[in-house]
Amino acid sequence: MTITMYGAQWCKDCRRAKAYFDENGIDFDYVNAEETPAATEIILERNAGLQRIPVIVFDDDSHLTEASNEEIATKLADLEARNSFVVTKNTEHGTFELHHNGELVSHADFTKHGNVYAIPHVGTVRSFRGQGHASRLMDGVLQHIRMERSTIVPLCPFAASHIRDNPRWQPLVAAAD
Q: Do the Cβ atoms of 156 and 162 come closer than 8 Å?
């Protein structure tokens, strides 16, 4: 799990959160906003223009601001439970796959041209439908696409609606030619 905390040495909440991570053996990256100018932009973006710290960003792109130790513990437990789900890219079959405890739950077909993924179909195994797995898969797919610095053409209606309903993913949509 990747955790990045943006804070400052003078901040009491930042020191407390750092101590919580250290005491619990939780790896995290610390970015001192006073020494890293780009950190201020991230802090402001995550807080709707307010300069509040610490901002703790998790690998699912969610964040907490000025969180108590209890809030951090709850978030980590939630992420750990969700992390029993794994999204993988199966290049040979042209699919992204969501597995839960090793079992295929959902998949998204893809083709890739240059740095643009086309997603024509997203499907979930019948016995797992209606449990939010396709959304979990799409978040993993889009995270992968973001990390790869690629874009997406969501041909599948579900993929398109998932992006439309989650503004953080909209910048990944490939510009129309």
A: no
Write out the two tokens for 42.
């991230």
DSSP line for 67-110: --HHHHHHHHHHHHHHTTEEEEEETTTTEEEEEETTEEEEEEEE
What is the DSSP code string of 109-154? EEEEETTEEEEEEEEE-GGGTTSSHHHHHHHHHHHHHHHTT-EEEE
Is 75 in contact with 64 (CB distance < 8 Å)? yes
Q: Over the stretch 51-60, which tens digit does the pLDDT of each residue have?
A: 999 999 998 8
Q: Which residue has the higher pLDDT, 140 or 86?
A: 140
Summarize pLDDT for 73-104 with one digit per residue, the tens. Answer: 999 888 877 667 888 999 999 999 999 877 89
CA distances for 44 relative to 33, 41, 51, 75, 137, angstroms:
11, 5, 6, 21, 29
Q: What class, spelled out in words, does domain 85-172 have in CATH?
A: alpha beta
- Neighbouring C-beta atoms of residue 34, cutoff 10 Å: 12
Q: Where are the domains of the chain?
A: 3-82, 85-172
pTM of the entire predicted model: 0.56
